[in-house]
Amino acid sequence: MIVSASHAGPSGSLQRLEFGRVSVVLGEKSGKYPNGNQVLIRGTDTRAAFDTPIVSNYIGPEFDATELVVMGHVHEDHMAGLHRLPNARVYVHEADVAAARSWSGMVAAFGMTDETVISRTLDKFQREFFYAPRPDALSYEDGMTWDLGQSTIRAFHLPGHTAGHCVLLVEPEGVAFTGDIDLTGFGPYYGDACSNLGDFRRSLQRLPDIPAKVWVTSHHRGVYTDRDRFLHDLAAFAAKLDEREQQILKWLGESPKTLEQMVERRLLYPQGFNAAWVTDAETRTISRHLAELLSSGRVQVDEQGFYRCG
Q1: Is the per-residue pLDDT at 193 higher than 80?
Q2: Which of 7, 144, 170, 255 could form a disulfide with 175 if both were Cys (CB 3.0 to 4.6 A apart)?
């Protein structure tokens, strides 16, 4: 691994890490949202990128020469540099590709229904993330490979965060871009309409089996080169799912509660934090845990919609 600093970003030079033909350009605070970490691959035939976070706008000609973009999943912060690459081929997993191709597709993936929220969100994405849909986006399936010339990309479908979320592996370098399985202290996010809690659990179990030597997260954690440290942080990230489940059981142990009452208590976000998406995200997240708890018989619900421990 080679570490260097080059180019001028919004707050100074950009830190780079080199792994053979793979470069990782770190966004501010190791890609903490709303930024992200940019992976670039210099194949002898094709120059490729994984996603396009805000930092991609400050890399310069090296990024602008990208010919192929493989998206690990579709969210606004991962599309922030696509406007710079109008002629690049853009590939998105088939379960996420509609969200990349149009604003209506992204709205459906998020599950937004309030027209005021939809309008304000579009304005925010255009101002802060240079958002522009890619109607030309091509779809790919689990296991697809791209030969770049002396480097190959292989896609592993690990859904949950979104329906099409994938981990992208560069071989022979062994660099895995884990996307928003980002190992942050916040924990897994599965609050979109297209998210799935059960899929996320299975994806977290599968991730260690991908034959990688380096793991690059989209956000905040940056780059792992120590497998033991990676597995430790992955276990802590996965444990957030059980912590959230236990929090719901604790609430219901105090007294029966409706879904709306639990949403008001906040499982993901602090009370008083009321961004436009929060109520929907909390509702979906808590509902998905309740569905698991109902299925296992640990929780029951009555005709008035009050949940109680089973």
Answers
A1: yes
A2: 170
